[in-house]
Automatic annotation (TrEMBL):
<protein>
    <submittedName>
        <fullName>Two-component system response regulator</fullName>
    </submittedName>
</protein>
<feature type="domain" description="EAL">
    <location>
        <begin position="24"/>
        <end position="278"/>
    </location>
</feature>
Length: 289
């Protein structure tokens, strides 16, 4: 009996694995189509200065609405895009669209919102990256000073000379570099002085329990003061509550991004919120509101 039931569970397990592999394969093919047709969407999430709670910019986040399966989690389709190399084309589209939509919002509301765009480490293997960034700004009329590129620590592991040159050129044109998900990767602190970085994005995993966890509080305080001493500014990701915000204010964190101030939304939705109630209205649009 025991043998039978364990055989059955192995068969079920194998069936499930085969189904998952088929699903993933399907997604891969459909993502290729979606990217080549330019079918991905863009969501913008507010970034807010802690002192005075002023909306200063947005992070651009890719969205994929699958015709059959609905919204696909970005973690999943970005991973597929990285594995298949589609991330390079996807990343270019996001960058172009982010520059265009931000330039439009800035014109419409007479503001100078910044835009942060995620770059995959794979995109740095393309020698034309720097030129592409420059062209994206120019063709959409966005000052490079309004553009921030988010990179992750994995970028620093390989071909560091080419990477250093590209980062320096990007900063040379006036754009900024942010280190995303800080604290979750290899976190060799030498990266902070070896590579030109303008700001650190504290990962959500440190923020999650920061209103009560004494050790997370010490880590967050420590990262912020380390950054300050190196003249690197800080933004906290994943801030959902006022207690978290208060703690970050106490630590003199510069900016905050999270559901507390707004979920990622389309430029159209943000624009109508701002038309209705100004920019303060746009940053207090909470998920259940
Ligand atoms: P990320 O760059 O760290 O982006 C922040 C993620 O945290 C986003 O997830 C955002 O929706 C989520 N988030 C923001 N505030 C909160 C909060 O208060 N609470 C919680 N629970 N989550 C919050 P999302 O949109 O699912 O994206 C996941 C990851 O996918 C991104 O993480 C980024 O690494 C990657 N990604 C998204 N778009 C692109 C892209 O255009 N290019 C590249 N290379 N990666 C992208
Ligand atoms: Mg990011
Ligand atoms: Mg992040
Ligand atoms: Mg993250």
């Amino acid at each position: 009996r025991a043998k039978n039931s364990s055989n059955r569970s192995i068969v079920q397990f194998e069936k499930k694995m085969a189904e998952e592999a088929a699903y993933r394969h399907q997604l891969e093919q459909d993502l290729r189509k979606a990217v080549s047709h330019g079918d991905l969407d863009l969501a913008l999430q507010p970034q807010v200065v802690v002192q005075g709670e002023k909306l200063v910019g947005f992070e651009a986040l890719a969205r994929w609405q699958h015709p059959e399966f609905g919204a696909i989690r970005p973690d999943l389709f970005i991973e597929i895009a990285e594995q298949t190399g589609l991330i390079c084309e996807l990343g270019k589209q996001v960058l172009n669209r982010a520059c265009r939509e931000t330039a439009l919002l800035n014109t419409q509301f007479d503001k100078s919102f910044r835009i942060s765009v995620n770059l995959s480490s794979l995109q740095f293997q393309n020698e034309n990256l720097v030129q592409f960034v420059e062209d994206a700004c120019r063709s959409h009329g966005l000052a490079p000073e309004m553009l921030e590129l988010e990179v992750t620590e994995s970028l620093f592991l390989s071909n560091s000379e080419q990477t250093k040159t590209a980062l320096a050129a990007i900063r040379g044109m006036g754009a900024r570099i942010a280190l995303d998900d800080f604290g979750t990767g290899y976190s060799s602190l030498s990266y902070l002085r070896e590579f030109a970085i303008d700001r650190i994005k504290l990962d959500r995993s440190f923020i999650k329990d920061v209103s009560w966890s004494a050790s997370d509080q010490r880590i967050v305080k420590g990262i912020i003061s380390l950054a300050k001493s190196l003249d690197i500014s800080t933004i906290a990701e994943g801030v959902e509550t006022n207690q978290q915000r208060e703690f970050l204010e106490e630590c003199e964190c510069d900016e905050i991004q999270g559901f507390y101030y707004g979920v990622p939304s389309s430029a159209t939705d943000l624009s109508s919120l701002m038309k209705k109630g100004g920019e303060r209205y746009a940053i207090h649009h909470l998920p259940d509101a």
